[in-house]
Each structure stands twice: as C-alpha cells, then as structure tokens.
User: What shape does this take?
Amino acid sequence: MPNSPNYESTAAEARSAYPLKPTKRRSEWFYLKKNAELLMLLTPGALLVLIFSYLPMFGTVLAFKDYRYDKGFWGSDWVGFDNFKFFFISDNAWLVTRNTVGYGLLYMILTTVIGLFFAILMNELGKKWLRIHQTAMFIPYCLSWVVVSYLALAMLDSSNGYLNRILETLGLETHMWYLESKPWPYILVSAYLWKNIGFSTLVYFAGIMGINQEYYEAAKIDGASRWQMATRITLPMLSTLIVVLLILAIGHIFVGDFGLHYFLPNENGMTFPTTDIIDTYVYRALRVHGDIGMSTAIGLYQSAVGLVLVVVANTVVRKVSEENSLF
Assistant: This one.
C-alpha cells in the first residue's frame, strides 16, 4: 500500500519555491488620493452639516442661562433648568406638544402608506406616462410654503375664495376658514400630502426599480396576480428601505414643519388650538418676547427627545430583524 503523501512537506516546498512578497502597508495618504473625487463631492455636504448642525451646538448653553445682550454669551447669569420649567408650566405646553406629536405621526404614517401605494401604481405604467406622472407629482415638492400659502389663500379666502364659491353654488353654508380652528387639521394634512407625497413616491419607486425583475417574471409564469406580486414581492423587498425611512421620520416627530404651520394659517390666533406646534411657539416666544433662553431650551428639548426616539426605534427594530436596523 503506497505511503500517504506528506502534506506538510509539500506545503513547505511550495512556499520555498514561490515565496510571498511582503506587502507594504499603504498609507492613509494613498487612500485619500485614490478617493479624491469622492471626497470633493462630499465636501459641500460636510461643510453644510458642520456649519448649520455642529457649530450651533455651542449655543445650547443658552438653554441654561438668562441671556442678556449687555452681559454677552458667557457673562449671562446661570439659571439651570428654569428655562425648561417656564415652558412646561405654561398653559400652552401640553397643547403645542400634542399638536406636534399628533401631526408628526399623521404625516409619517400617511406619507409612507400613500407613497408606497403610488409607487406600486407607477411601476405598472409605461415609460411615456411614467415620466408625465413623475414630473406632475414632484413639482409641488419644489414649491416653498410661502407660495403654497398664497394658493391656499386663493382657495380659503372668506369673500372671494374658490372653496366658498363652490359651497355657495351647491347651496351649502360658507365658512370663514381663517377664523375657525376645527377645519385646519384636514387642511394642513391635505396640504402636506399634496406637497410631499411626490418625493416619497419617487424614493419608494427608486427602491422598486432596484428589485430584480426576474422575481416578477417568475411570478407571472406561476400565475400570480398584480396584488400578489405587490404583497409577496414588492413590499418584502422594500422592507429595509421602509423601516430605515420610518426610523428617521420618528426622530422628526418632535420637530414640526414650521413653514406649513406658520404660513398656511397666516399666524391667526383663532386657529392656534389646532395649528400651533412647538416650532411656531418657539418662534413667537423669540420674536415677541425676545426670550432667547427659553427658545433655546425648547429647541434642545426637541433634539433630545428626537434622539431618544431614534435610538429606541432602532433598538426595537434590531431585536426584531437586525438586517433592517439603521445602526
């Protein structure tokens, strides 16, 4: 019986015959030069975040001070948590917090559901109609809330508004929209969806475009319906994208859309019970009362709660499905 081969000696002979060349550890400068173009593309966004997100963080110290212009940034008296107490004991604290969280949840849920619905519908369109629908849905997103507020004024003006004229034609009672608070939750939600649903739809549609089309072809061969392909292929394949966007949206629940809630109701006090949010409340406190300390405290409160919500939501998602978590 022949002897079994000696693998150790064979490997040693191979290493001696073909010695491995020692590899030099490439310096960090090499990788910087290699990715110079990508770093140049990153620079504007990094500077934007640095200037508007990180440098202003030094100003959070004003949340714990009674800021006075004559004493300056560092010389103002330290008051601890008094600025936070002033907000929480005020009559409007519960109202603006309720409105901010309620609208944030509505915007997040409706934008996700309707955006997914339209993205799935757009996936069934031909290229010609697809471009038309993409452009038509995305145009409102490019408009500022100032422009949208004038469009809303043309619709809701009590004397010459189109909506009141339509109600008169139908024999229904007209309304003084800017002096009533009850209709504004419907108006604000409708305006938000009209402006932002196009962007959300395009994000989910881009995710659908990244799905391997072989899945749909195999499903068609097996006789699957459009509904089955949407629920069994599209939604499961988009689950990671949906979860990541929801986690990011949860962090903004305590940060309302200032432009929407400030410009559309025209800052009319009669609508405050259903339109006032933390952001508009802080702006009025800073503009009318000049209370920089309280305004900074409320802004810090929003950021802290948003951070906690993102971390908690991501932790829950990671325990359920680690691959769908954000970090």
